[in-house]
Amino acid sequence: MVAKKVLAEIKQDLDGYVGKRIRLKANRGRRKVIERVGILEQTYPNIFVIKLDEKKNLGRRVSFSYSDVLTETVELSLCKEDGDKKIVCGER
What we know:
By secondary structure, the protein is α+β, with helices and mostly antiparallel strands. It has helices at 2-15, 66-70, and strands at residues 21-27, 33-43, 47-52, 61-65, 74-78, 85-86.
């Protein structure tokens, strides 16, 4: 029960960033870490979608679950002119 509540809080926190420019850092295992910039396009009950800013793959989207944020497999930062600000979601 507690896990569902925390995941719902993470979703609610991310709802406030829809349409904002986000820096994504995802750990893909075996020392594979990807860093991309994109727009938080939509939040759904179980996942969120980021539209990436890439020249070679226009309109490419990636999705992650809220549990990825909880386990810190995915780190999100808000892109600002004066530097990035890490987005902290849910209770830790």
